[in-house]
Amino acid sequence: MITLDELLERDRQREEDGFKRKIRIGQIVKPGSGGKEKIIVVPTTVEEKFFHDEINLDQEQGEGEPTGGTGEGEEGDIIGEQPIRPEEGEGDGEGDGEGPGEGEGGEHEFEANAYELGKVLSQDFQLPNLKDKGKKRSLAKYVYDLTDKNQGSGQFLDKKATMKKIVETNIMLGRVPDISDIDTTQFIISPQDLIYRILSREKDFESQALVFFLRDYSGSMGGKVTQTVVSQHVMLYSWLMYQYDKQVETRFILHDTDAKEVSDFYKYYSYKVAGGTKVFTAFKLVNDIVERENLAREYNIYVFHGTDGDDWDKEGVQTIAEIKKMMLYVARIGISIVEHSYVGGKQTEVEKYLKSSGILSKHKELIKLDVMGETVDDSRIIQGIKRLIS
Amino acid sequence: MELVSQHVKGIMEECKVRARDAGLSFDDESLEYIVTNRDLIELSPKIMIPTLYDYWVHDVKVLSGKGMYEAYPSNPYETVINTRPAISYYNDNNPDWLNVMIFYHVLGHIDFFQNNLFYKNTWEVDLTGQALADKRLIAKLRSEKGRLVDYVIEFSRGIDNLVGYYREINHIISKENLSKKNQGKINKIDYYFDIFLQQLKGVSHNTYLKEITRYNNSQKTKSNFFDPITDKYPEFEELYKKAKRSNKHYEPDIMEYIIQHSPFLKLDENKWMKTIIQIIRNTSLYFQPQIRTKIMNEGWASFWHEYLFMRDDRICGHESDFAKVNAGVTAMPKVGLNPYALGMRLFQHIEDMEDKGCYSFDYYCQKDEIKKQKYNTLKKSGTQYIFKIRANMNDFTFINRYIDQEFLTKHKLFVSGKRFNQPRMSWEYYIKSKKAEDYKKMVIDTLYHPPEIQVDAEKSVKGVLYLNHTFEEKPLKRDFIENTMIGIEYLWGGPIHLETSEPTAEGKPAASYANFWDPATPVGKTSEPKKIQWKRMRYMMENRKLHKREL
To answer: B450 vs A50: CB contact, 8 Å cut-off?
Structure first.
């Protein structure tokens, strides 16, 4: 049986032959109870042919695909309802193709898999390393070392400490009459004087990254745009996991006209599109969280935002204000705008106000913008990541 | 993968006897294998044919299939493939009673494969043997030509949904009905109705139907049908003779056209590629009937497993187990479509209707609903009737002909819609329609229907291959056009043009407004969506670069 590595090698060869790559790294989410889920990394590919497009042209706005049904009732009767914005813990909010579900396996297994994906990414796509801005320090992990001392028994005799202890005991016993001429043969040595080192848990200090993922899931974000944003964020997340050796913490925020924090990555990427768009709410929520939990002191903070560039706040007054606030502590803001194909050559609102505010050139080390079309392939998405973290 | 035990095979043979008594017909031989989940995952990308050629896309699918299985384990009860002898796969450790039920289901499938006319092109082929030969040939070529082989496979598969299946099947069936001498030649009646009246004269629907009536009458009265024609159209005889001589209504599909005419494939060093295209084309043709008879095939198998197992003494003691498993397979979902369930119920409905003589002019003329419900001529020909349907129809004709209001009413079926409720921020599911016409359309929309794309030989000049997509109010999936055309360009060795239709932006439905007269109707229901405007586009692929232009 052929391995994933061999398949990817074969795919690389396609480029040499002048054809586009065909293999994408996909994820399957294994559902489980209590929000515990597991991500499984698999390759996927599409065999392109001439197919009819599935779009239903004469469908009305806000109307889904019709299908069959059976049961009692008259035409027009409502037979069921499904909330668009699922509540936390409800656990049934997956979108079409964006994430096939959610739910066991636990945090650890997921991270292990994301770590694998990150490894594949940084090996195969040669992403540049994230700059380590780790001046701030924080508790990160424990190491085990022979640092604790114990009298009488232990794993390793600490000779120096033991010697000191013996001298001390003998002084107290009055067996050292002259401090300048010590006769060690006269020392009494009690078993209690032997000092040993024993294994103990030590806190290790390492630089720490905190990454906020922000995603627009407003009504306009349906279909491809969301897939592209999510796909980029999955790669970013996986790669950060790898790069920071799992020392990365993540928070996830979804917004339409309101922003809300969700507890894990699955909820983050699987929730369906909802209402209108107010971009600033997401940035505001990040600022609030950072302030409330006093995070800026201890973390490198990264913020990545994915949107289609649509905003009810056309001038971006509130958004720019929130971003400026963020500039005070953030290590990098990366905004990706995925344009709908109908946008054409025009700039989207978010792109327009970000550019006119001058914030991009003034803080070019701290904020990066990447604009791409909704139909881009993986290599473009990866290029986007490079740009965001360059 | 191993054959089932002698005990289990015994159960199968017993089932065959009873199924034959009920009227099913199939070959004596069949092979039953026990497979592990791992086997299944590895087989499914190869459309369950163990001997299918190797290809990297299959490997990708196996890897993702394994991941999928880890996340969502699920095991099918059975899988049958249309080979001679028919091969079926099972999971281990089914209890005997369940095997009886599953075997009846499988026999239903085998009967369908071996009797439905649309499968005629597969009846004379030993698929497993053929596939094995192809697999070896491809392996040999791969050792000589390297990864070029995989590109040729990829690009051939890129157009393998455009094979001329109906032409092929028509050819096979009409070949049988003609004498040796006239093989491949068109007969006078067909020429008159299919070509002369429709294509050359372009007569109205009405005239056409009148001619058919006249033909039917002439059959009864034994009068010469063609006498008045020669008077009316003196040129007819000459034209027919000409058509008969030229015998030129053979239109190759894209794959055949490329094999015959591609300048690139004519080069000595590329001739081997034709073999691969041919293999891909034949494999695709083999599976065409399957995709086009899903509802019927599953419905037929479900119909018979239920019918036969309920009358089988081996059900004793397992009635409720059966009910549970059977409901799992054949229940109609509250929202959604289950082809097994739909097909099964439709066969049952047709049998019932025919038993009562409802497929008659007399019934059609009944206007009284009560009388209609009580209508019964005790015709009792339902069973023979559904056997005829299983032999002569495919999903489209089956659905289109037999879904009627009686069927919807009997099973409380409806088309369900889904709409966005802004204030409540929710999706609402509602009963959209209970009309047979709407339900029929909804089901037909789910059927397999590849685009109709042909080579336009007259426009294929100066090294260009000109493809024409027949307009059916459906655009092509735009993202896939580029790579598909790159593939065709490779096989053709020159520029490719594709003519197709796309909706224009103005064609979007008009903004919806509230209905003041009846606020209860959902918003937008009353505003007729604007008719979609279509424009004809030409895509041009040259040196792996895609351009497009409005025509």
So the answer is: yes
Q: Could you tell me the residue range of the domain that residue B495 belongs to?
A: 453-508+523-550
Residue A100 covered by a domain? no
Q: Are residues A174 and A123 in the same domain?
A: no
Facing residue for B503 by CB, picked from A46, A57, A74: A57
Give the whole-angstrom CA distance, residue B392 versus residue B385.
11
Q: What is the pLDDT of residues B418-468, one digit of tens each?
A: 887 777 777 788 999 999 999 999 999 889 999 999 999 889 988 999 999
Residue-number span of the structural domain to which A154 is assigned: 140-204
The model's confidence at residue B403, banded by pLDDT at 50, 70 and 90, is very high
Residues of B in contact with A68 (CB under 8 A): 332-333, 335-337, 342, 413-416, 439, 442-443
Q: Please indicate, yes or no, if residue B253 is contained in any of the structural domains.
A: no
| Cβ within 8 Å, pair A73-B431 | yes
Distance, in Å, from the CA atom of B209 to the CA atom of B193, rounded to the nearest integer, reads 10
- For residues A15 and A335, what is the distance between their CA atoms, to the nearest angstrom? 29
Q: How many domains does chain A have?
A: 2
Flag if A57 and B532 touch (Cβ within 8 Å). yes
Flag whether A284 is in a domain.
yes
Distance from CA of B450 to the nearest CA of A (A): 6
| C-alpha atoms less than 13 angstroms from C-alpha of B127 in its C-beta half-sphere | 23
In degrees and rounded to multiples of 5, residue B2 shows phi and psi of: -140, 160
Is B385 within the bounds of a domain?
Answer: yes
Give domain status of residue A266, yes or no. yes
For residue A310, the distance in angstroms to the closest alpha carbon of chain B comes to 19
pLDDT range class, residue A206, cuts 50, 70, 90 = low
Give chain A's length: 390
Convert the pLDDT of each residue in B117-159 to its tens digit. Answer: 999 999 988 888 899 999 999 999 999 998 899 999 999 999 9
Long-range pairs, B421-426, Cβ under 8 A, ≥24: B421/A81, B422/A62, B422/A275, B424/A81, B424/A83, B425/A83, B425/A84, B425/A85, B425/A274, B425/A275, B426/A81, B426/A82, B426/A83, B426/A84
B154 within a domain of the structure (yes/no): no
Q: What is the ipTM of this complex?
A: 0.81
A-chain residues within 8 Å CB-CB of B71?
28-31, 38, 40, 100
Tell which of A204, A229, A256 closes a domain. Answer: A204
Q: For an interface test with B, which of A48, A228, A340, A378 has the most B Cβ atoms less than 10 Å from its Cβ?
A: A48
Residues A196 and A300 in one domain: no
Residue carrying structure tokens 């995989």:
B150
Provide the number of CB pairs (under 8 Å) joining chain A to chain B: 231
Are A64 and B158 in contact (CB < 8 Å)?
A: no
Q: B302 and B204 share a domain?
A: no
Please identify which residue in the block is written with the tokens 């295209």: B277
Are B442 and B473 in a shared domain? no
Regarding whether A237 and A178 lie in a shared domain, the answer is no
Contacts of A1 in chain B (CB under 8 A): 59, 62
Examine residue B277 and state whether it is found in any structural domain, yes or no: no
Cα A347 to the chain's mean position, in Å? 28
B chain contacts of residue A29, beta-carbon cutoff 8 Å: 71
Q: Does A326 reside within a domain?
A: yes
Q: A-chain residues within 8 Å CB-CB of B439?
A: 68
| A269 and A339 fall within a common domain | yes
B335 and B439 belong to one structural domain: yes
